[in-house]
Write a sequence for this structure.
């Protein structure tokens, strides 16, 4: 009998917030037993199905990520903002900034990185 274990980083706690597999919104806590929700609404479930079907028709691997030109440009802009914020921290530290100034700059990085968590 083989024992199958999941890697530690894959195991989710019940109290961790879950996000919609399509739009990224936080899913409400579900006290019901059974399989956890993957989508926040039927429309998100339908869009995800349509994307999977289009990927299969296009011959792309199932784990492929397809972005429109606008989504790619937006992602590149947000990555540029994150890099600039990180460079600001490095420059401020080199110039002898105070701890309070560095905390403020670190907060800007945190906000910028949080915006990158949602690709859609």
């Amino acid at each position: 009998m083989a024992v199958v274990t999941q890697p530690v980083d894959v195991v989710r706690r019940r109290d961790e917030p879950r996000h919609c597999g399509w739009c990224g919104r936080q899913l409400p806590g579900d006290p019901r037993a059974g399989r956890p929700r993957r989508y926040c609404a039927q429309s998100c479930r339908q869009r995800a199905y349509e994307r999977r079907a289009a990927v299969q028709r296009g011959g792309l691997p199932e784990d492929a990520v397809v972005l429109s030109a606008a989504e790619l440009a937006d992602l590149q802009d947000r990555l540029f903002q994150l890099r600039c914020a990180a460079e600001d921290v490095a420059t401020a530290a080199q110039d002898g900034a105070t701890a309070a100034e560095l905390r403020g700059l670190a907060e800007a990085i945190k906000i910028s990185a949080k915006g990158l968590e949602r690709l859609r």
